[in-house]
Amino acid sequence: MTSKRARLTVRSVLSGFLAAALLGSAATAAMAKETFTVDLVNEPSSLDPQKQWNPDSYYVYRNIFDNLVTRNDAGEIVPQVASAWKQVSPTEMQFTIRGDIKFQDGTPLTAKDVAFSIQRIIDPAFASPQLGQFNKITKAEASDDKTVTVTTDGPYPVLLAQLTKLSIVPEHVVEKVGDDAFNLKPVGSGPYSFEAWQRGVSVTLKRNDDYWGDKGPFETVTFRAVPDASTRVADLQAGTADLVVSLDSDQAAQLQTAPNAQALTALTERIAYLGINTGKPPLDDKRLRQAIAYGIDREGIVEGILGGEGKVVGQIVSPAAFGWSDSIEPYPYDPEKAKALIAEVGDGAKAELQFATAPVFDQRIVQALQQMLTEIGLKVEINMTDMATYLKAAQGPRDSQPMLSFGRWSCSCQDADGIMYPLLESDSAWSRYSNPEMDKLLNEARSTLDEDKRRADYEKASELVKDDVSLLPLYQVAIIYGASKKLDWQPTANESLFLNRMSWQGE
User: Fold this and answer.
1) 206 and 94 in one domain?
2) What are phi and psi of 475, to 5 degrees?
3) Using an 8 Å Cβ cutoff, are 97 and 83 in contact?
4) For residue 360, which of 494, 250, 247 has the smallest C-alpha distance?
């Protein structure tokens, strides 16, 4: 009897353990569906949406804040904070602001916050790196709680497209705590609210259950800094990450047979380019810049390294953007011509060229560019830094900006103004080029509603870029994400991680 009772007791205990384990597993699975983990390359350099413009920052803060207007998944401009708008004069656009939006501290969002946000980003003293995309705006005024009028210094055809990137910040919070404190603990009106920022490790957001629009599907979202791409892929395959960014074609191929992961791709507005400091010797010699252009095998990069993911271009504008010209071809790959130009330059071409990069960029491309330039006789030294340091140098004084750099630029506005103006206009913080002819073309193109004149100006500007090699366009970028097979989400050309447009399959 004792033995039988013991067996029954053991069986009961084991059954209890099994039931508890099953309940625990179910609870863990349910919890896991509410916890969403994203592996970025770097931690955000800023959570203030008007302080920085780079992918790792944008991926996070885009979910904390609402924008004045936004784009739907088809790329069309649609209402967000503004429910309607109208052009009341060639230089004035009036916006009607929704009355049901609250910031995450419970304070209503009003037209005054919209006006404040615009005035803040156009203030030269605030020194936003986005200033070049908004500096046609001269003022924003709220006439009541629901009406804002935005005035530009002339007709500005790209205003609405640029305003898709304008995040609305709460005036009362920014004014009370100051810019630095606001960056450390931002308050927005978006579908997720800021929870914690563990420097160098992760940023955690919590779902805003009082959000006025489509609610986020995940209770908690953690964005982690994972610089090594192979580690991001391993995290995804192990199930410790649900979404990972910035994969290359080789890593995407690894996911084709993965039982629980998938690769998601989209051809973007972004253009990959080689940045050149045209004012810094020896790169102030046009012949040397042309040698660089002839020495780069773009087709080899796209087909051999990117696996055909991307499209070779000869201009710093996406084919999907206004201002693209079908008549401008890229420099042909001609290493012998490149060597001849270098020989003409002589001793000046012997200087070592510092090539700036950061982990967010595909280092296979960076190394291939270095090798190609080395093969035509140039000395190129790669200088790897974290993204924040890279961006600080890129926006610094021109004489301290990188000699060479690999970059990928997108304005999310589908207009040449959003990429050519910041990268090529003399007064832009990003520009390493100064040419009155270029300045004239870019400023006239952004100051007329005549689309034919704009197209003509941008074509001339692209021809000037090619002739002067003020920078070197390489290819239109295809972005590749890795995701859980359970994730239902379609990436878009503007590369926004809208968390509230995602869901778990079956929900």
Assistant:
1) yes
2) -160, 155
3) yes
4) 247
CA dihedral of 477, 478, 484, 486, whole degrees rounded to 10: 130
Domain residues for the domain of 57 are 34-225
Tell me, yes or no, whether 191 lies in a domain. yes
Same domain, 213 and 271: no
Which residue bears the tokens 């791709």? 265
Say if 490 falls within a structural domain: no
Structural tokens at position 448: 């007329």
Do the domain assignments include residue 197? yes
3-state secondary structure of 272: strand
205 and 284 inside one domain: no
Shared-domain flag, residues 219 and 345:
no
Per-residue pLDDT of the chain (507 residues; tens, 9 = 90+): 344 443 333 334 334 433 333 333 333 343 445 789 999 999 998 999 998 778 899 999 999 999 999 989 888 899 999 999 999 999 999 999 999 999 999 999 999 999 999 999 999 999 898 887 898 999 999 999 999 999 999 999 999 999 998 999 999 999 999 999 999 999 999 999 999 999 999 999 999 999 999 999 999 999 999 999 999 999 999 999 999 999 988 899 999 999 999 999 988 888 999 999 999 999 999 999 999 999 999 999 999 999 888 899 999 998 878 899 999 999 999 999 999 999 999 999 999 999 999 988 889 999 999 999 999 999 999 999 988 899 888 888 888 899 999 998 877 788 899 899 999 999 998 999 999 999 999 999 998 889 999 999 999 999 999 999 999 999 999 989 999 999 999 998 888 899 999 999 976
Q: Which residues contact 400 (CB under 8 A, 6 or more apart)?
A: 393
DSSP string, 172-197: HHHHHH-HHHHHHS---SSSEEEEEE
Question: Are 332 and 458 members of one domain?
Answer: yes
Residues 410 and 305 in one domain: yes
Task: Please count the structural domains in the chain.
Answer: 2
By DSSP bridging, strand 352-357 and strand 379-384 are parallel
In a domain, 245, yes or no: no
Q: Are residues 371 and 472 in the same domain?
A: yes
